[in-house]
Amino acid sequence: MSEADYLIVGQGLAGSVLACLLAMRNRKFIIIDDAHASAASKSAAGIINPITGKRLNRPLLIDEMLQSAFEFYPQAERLLGHRFFYSRKVLRLLQSVEEQRCWARRLATGEYRRYVADQIPSCSIKGYEFGGFEIGMAAQLDVPKFLDSARDYFIAANSLVERRFEYSDIKFCSNGVQWCEFRSPVLVFCEGYKLKKNPFFGGIEMNPAKGEMLTFRSCSFADDRIVQRGKWIFRNQDGLIKAGTTYSWDLLDEMPTALGRAEILKGLEEFADFRFEIVGQTAGVRPVVRADNRPVVGSHPEHRALAILNGLGSKGALQAPCAADQLVDHLENGKPIRPEFDVCRNLVWKQRVNA
Length: 355
Ligand SMILES: Cc1cc2nc3c(=O)[nH]c(=O)nc-3n(C[C@H](O)[C@H](O)[C@H](O)COP(=O)(O)OP(=O)(O)OC[C@H]3O[C@@H](n4cnc5c(N)ncnc54)[C@H](O)[C@@H]3O)c2cc1C
What we know:
The chain has six helices and 19 strands. With 355 residues, the protein is an alpha/beta fold. The chain has a domain at 2-43 and 145-206 and 291-348: FAD/NAD(P)-binding domain (3-Layer(bba) Sandwich). Residues 9-15, 32-34, 36-41, 43-47, 164-165, 190-192, 194, 211-213, 244-245, 284, 286-287, 310, 312-318 line the site of flavin-adenine dinucleotide.
């Protein structure tokens, strides 16, 4: 029997961030993953942006999350010995008079100025008819590279088991859980949208959203910012151009579609004026919590040896470090999870499990 401080199911963004935090604390963990059979993280653009959506909102706990992300990823780069995190600017182009007004209201509160790099007085680029602004406090995580670097590190440390995790193989024992040849006081589930198959946390109501992304080769896209106007586009560190994304809720799988490609290309016509060749298309399913689209973090209300880190939605790169930090503090020091993320918050469960 092999003993560990933690068992983790899933080596997507959630599982990898959690495992890196544990490695930084010299904890012994085993991470079980089915070779990324359903990893949304493999298709993620990794954009970290404090001002999002048509209503130009700031996500809940934004300052705390930005701080965690800007601290964690450089530490993870040192741990894993690779670069995958880049401070970048976002050029946000406004799409309508309503958005212009909304942005003027947001700016007037004074709360948004610290995220903004420059107001652009005039701009000749396509799609600037309603104006725009630059977000300075933004970044991009090369998520596939982070995952690959973490995977190599976990393999070298003998911490990765590449296998499908069968829930029926869990056995509860007096000091934790046993799964196959592994035993640990805590098992943390990080399976992304496959959470619905989990017999312990499957009562959390999810509304997963499929998303697609295109990869281009182009010599004529010179902007070094992430440019956003409904859709987004940016040059990756490898020189390829990434563009996305879509949201659909019907066919939840990892298959790219002609419809997804057409939607992204149509959106780009509004603001991207360059020649390109499509060299790739990927799809993934974002794990979204139906009630409030916030992460679910913490211990199971009945089975205290089981915990969860999920619900990262469309902001996995931004939310994962802060959420994982809270989970580690909770499991190691008994600190309560923030109510906004706590898996025990009533409204996320289809049927409330008795505490
Ligand atoms: C097209 C697209 C673009 C996106 N862009 C951004 C972006 O710009 N910024 C951002 O922050 N977020 C973005 N996201 C969202 C981001 O991808 C997710 O929030 C994040 O990847 C979720 O990570 P996760 O670890 O929870 O799930 P996943 O990445 O899905 O990882 C779960 C892992 O668990 C494994 N697994 C599941 N069940 C089992 C089992 N029974 N046994 C073994 N292994 C199992 C899976 O195969 C997978 O490897 C995007 C998503 C998509 C689809």
